[in-house]
Structures are given as C-alpha cells and as structure tokens.
C-alpha cells in the first residue's frame, strides 16, 4: 500500500497538484501509519514535509470540531435539532424559523462570506445578523454561513469560546497538542498561498475567517490547524466508539459529508480531507497545501487525488 501511495503522490507533486502532503491511516486495531512527502513549497531549498507538519484544515473545521461539538450538545439535550436558531441568536433577522438541524444540513442561504468587503469582523457579523437568510430553509446547498452561525450557537450554549470548547471536549482528552486555531510554531506550518508577494502562513487562508483570526477570534466555518497524527487520534476515537453521538450524527450527514456506504468525512479547500469507514475499520487523513502559491481554478486535480488515495487505502 505504501508504495502505491508514494507513486500516486509523486505523480501529483510532478503535476503540481501540491508541493507536498502527509497521508495518514489508522485502523480500529490501533495500527497506524503516517507518510510525509515533498516540501512546504516549490522553491529550491524549501523545508521538507514531516509527519508533524501543520496544515490549515480549511472547511474540515466545519466537522472537526464544530459538527462534533454540536452532536455532543444535542446528545446532552442542550442543543435540540428542532430548536430555532433565533433562540440562541436573537439578533438574527429574517430567520424564517430555521432550526439547528437546518444549519447542520446547510439548508439556509444568505450572505456569501467571501464576498463581504468589510474591514472589521464586527462589521461582518453585524451584516450577517441584519441580513439573516435570503429565503426559508430549502434543499441543502453548501456554504460557509451555516457553520459560521453554528459556531456562535455553540459558544452561547457552551458558555466558552470555540477554541476552549474544542480543547475541553476533544483536543485535550485526545492529546491533540498541535491542533489549534492560532498556531504559534509558525516554522512548522505549511504556507497556503502568496498574496501581494507575502506568504499566507500561520493564519487562516479563508479571507472572511481571517478577519476574525486577526483579532484572535475563531469562527465555525474555517480556521483550524492540525497535523496528521493529531487528526488520527480523533478519527481513531470515532472508530473505537468513544464518541457515539458524534458518529451517529456524522452517519446522518449532520455537518459531515456522506462519502460512501458507511463512510463519512470532510474536505477542505486548501487540499485537506478526512474519511472514516467504520465498516472496514479504517480512517484516512490527507493534508496538503494545494492552494500554494496560487489557488487553482478548479478542484478536479485534488479530487482525483483524494479518490485515488481512498481507493488504495480502502480498496
């Protein structure tokens, strides 16, 4: 398996899908493997990727920790799926009676966060609250807004900021010591893009989330950084049934993507993904910075790579 993975990664690096990546697998039997490849960037002399290289997880944040926290709070009776969002965010206008489940299933539409041109996070948040949703809940349509609002709901239900809740329930107990919204060991962080001649490194790649991160505020739709070993700790816990509420919610597609029969996971724009197949008892992590030095026009190359690695690992 390792040779097949190495060959596929080598092809991806040659085709400039990304300059480097880390592939990690774990089985319910505790057997795990972490495989680093390539470099931080394409520049000559760039640092080599190691198994402990830190990557910007992008939208994986929506599932780890956001949807996972929502599942725990729901199981505890603190966050009923049928409860209106406005119960927790009374400032929200034009809510159309949308519920917590509508957020987790991405059934609401509203402001496209990446298009908001405000200069402070307060202005972004105020705009979102004032505009609310564009229509009543409908078919699922992927966007950042639901997870952004869910992050606020979690903070109000949990009584602590999102990073503190994530650490309390998951990152601390699972010894995910390199997992954080605000990495301090910048030398270990792979850059995600070059903007105006400056590398985006150690701060979230997503522009709207970055407005908050600049003021040390975390949001629900992007911003988490982690390593393959840390994420394998989390996925291994799911395989071993340590967080049954999280698994049950994930298997229903509540804040997670249903990727195949009995498999769920999440992808991130920067080139990251996690996948859990409980039937086969195996989980997979792919971390890369495919947006460096410039985000590609489409996702076909990274999606093809993800599919090929999943086929190698899961058969």
Features:
315 residues; alpha+beta; Beta-lactamase; Methane Monooxygenase Hydroxylase, Chain G, domain 1; 2 domains; 10 helices; 34% helix
Put the structure in a nutshell.
This protein is α+β, with helices and mostly antiparallel strands.
Explain what you see.
- This protein is α+β, with helices and mostly antiparallel strands and 315 residues long.
- It folds into two domains: 2-61 and 164-314, DD-peptidase/beta-lactamase superfamily (Beta-lactamase, 3-Layer(aba) Sandwich), CATH 3.40.710.10; 67-159, Methane Monooxygenase Hydroxylase, Chain G, domain 1 (Up-down Bundle).
- 34% of the residues lie in helices and 15% in strands.
- It contains ten helices and ten strands.
- It has a six-stranded antiparallel sheet with strand order 2-1-10-9-8-7, sandwiched between helices. It has a two-stranded antiparallel sheet with strand order 3-6.
- The longest helix has 15 residues, at 300-314.
- It is globular.
- The model has no long low-confidence stretch (mean pLDDT 97).
């Amino acid at each position: 398996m390792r040779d097949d993975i190495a060959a596929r990664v080598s092809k991806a690096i040659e085709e400039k899908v990304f300059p480097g990546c880390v592939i990690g697998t774990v089985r319910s039997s505790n057997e795990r493997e972490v495989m680093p490849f390539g470099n931080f960037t394409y520049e000559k002399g760039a640092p080599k990727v190691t198994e402990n290289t830190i990557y910007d997880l992008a939208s994986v944040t929506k599932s780890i920790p956001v949807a996972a926290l929502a599942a725990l709070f729901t199981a505890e009776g603190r966050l009923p799926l049928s409860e209106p969002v406005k119960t927790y965010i009374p400032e929200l206008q034009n809510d159309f009676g949308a519920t917590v489940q509508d957020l987790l299933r991405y059934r609401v539409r509203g402001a496209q966060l990446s298009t908001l041109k405000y200069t402070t996070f307060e202005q972004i948040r105020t705009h979102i609250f004032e505009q609310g949703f564009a229509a009543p809940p409908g078919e699922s349509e992927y966007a950042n807004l639901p997870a952004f609002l869910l992050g606020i709901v979690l903070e109000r239900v949990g009584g602590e900021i999102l990073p503190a809740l994530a650490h309390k329930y998951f990152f601390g107990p699972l010894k995910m010591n390199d997992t954080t919204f605000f990495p301090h060991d910048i030398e270990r962080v792979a850059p995600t893009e070059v903007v105006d001649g400056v590398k985006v490194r150690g701060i979230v790649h997503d522009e709207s989330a970055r407005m908050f991160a600049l003021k040390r505020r975390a949001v629900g739709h992007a911003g988490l950084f982690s390593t393959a070993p840390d994420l394998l700790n989390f996925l291994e816990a799911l395989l071993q049934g340590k967080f049954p509420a999280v698994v049950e919610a994930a298997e229903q597609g509540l804040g997670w993507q249903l990727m195949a029969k009995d498999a769920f996971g999440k992808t991130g724009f920067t080139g990251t993904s996690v996948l859990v197949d409980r039937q086969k008892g195996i989980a997979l992590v792919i971390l890369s910075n495919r947006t460096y030095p410039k985000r590609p026009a489409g996702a076909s190359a990274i999606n093809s790579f993800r599919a090929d690695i999943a086929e190698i690992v899961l058969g």
